[in-house]
Amino acid sequence: MESISLKQLKMPLSIIIIAILIGPLSIVLTTMSTSNLTGPNAYGYDNMRITGDKQSYLKFVSAAEMNGEMNNTSNSAQTQIPESAKGPAIPEKGYLVEEIRDNLYWVTDGSYNTMFLVTDEGVVAIDAPPSIGQNYLKAIAEVTDKPVTYVIYSHAHLDHIGAAAVFPRNATYIAQEATASELQRAMDLASNTSTIPPVPTVTFANNYTLQIGNQTLDLDYYGDNHMPGNLFIYAPNQKTLMLVDVVFPGWVPFVYLAISSDVAGFIKSHDIALNNYDFDIFVGGHLTRLGTQDDVKTQQDFVNDLEKAAVKANSEVQFADIAAEVGNTSDTWLLYSKYIDAVDQNCVQTMLAKWEDRLGGAAAFMPTHCFTMTEAGRVEPSLSAILQNVTMPDIANATGN
Fold it and tell me: Class assignment of domain 87-288?
């Protein structure tokens, strides 16, 4: 296509500039019917196998991505999962329960993970993923006949706490204030409040220590990361840290950096985990295995590289060049879509060269992570400030040449 100047475009230059700045509008939230989440079988039944994360999708509207042009790898045959991403086999009963240490147990169905603590005075259950549902109670019953007396919410997302109604109503429910506020708002809006997890009866702003019998859990909040209210849950006696929807041992995060509401906070949470806690076992909210400090460090390296790749892509891809390639058009969103495609492709190529064989799901989700980091770098002041100190990636070292 013959190159043209911006003056030849039908739209004013000011509209093009606005198009550069209006990034978040290029994301569309496509929510499937919530009938399965609000019906009588929504929470806690054995056959509840579809969760919120699987029913609601953030869909990036991109012509190249829709046509499979951005990342051929992600649209080809299923890629090999790295051995480091694989966890223990899930028994036929549908869940695995194992002791971590000193009466602290984890439960997994291979997609969602959580943990519970057995004390002299009852069981402390953390979260209640609907995908595990009633199997959570079965897992607890396998190791103790003590009742659940405390329930802790890591955060408000229903795919992690939606089955909390399986626990006794007279249990003490604990969460950070933002989580409690969101659940109360849901109660106020719901036509059927039985579908909403119980609103916490004990809340706190920053820190809360649960001392029950011979066991201790420290609950800490350092501000928004994955979402407001998301907690660091630490068992000091067991040297175990639980942080949901931030670190995914052996895998890249869920789409769009785990749909984090604060990208700068998401980045910072890795430093907090590594600097503030003495742990050797890490419990994330998803996938197939427990983690370690090394897993947190690996994802920290992944995020650091993503920052560098985003800086590189935003620097090398110029909107004016994309506008010249597209030519005369009054479709502002088409121009911006083409610009996003080019930025993302640049970032994806940089990232996959190093990470495709290191973490599970890298090829499938990398375009979403690149979009989140590059877009936030353009429009979010906090992340823009962080990226000021980021150096360009060493492509030769990244590809091993």
Answer: alpha beta
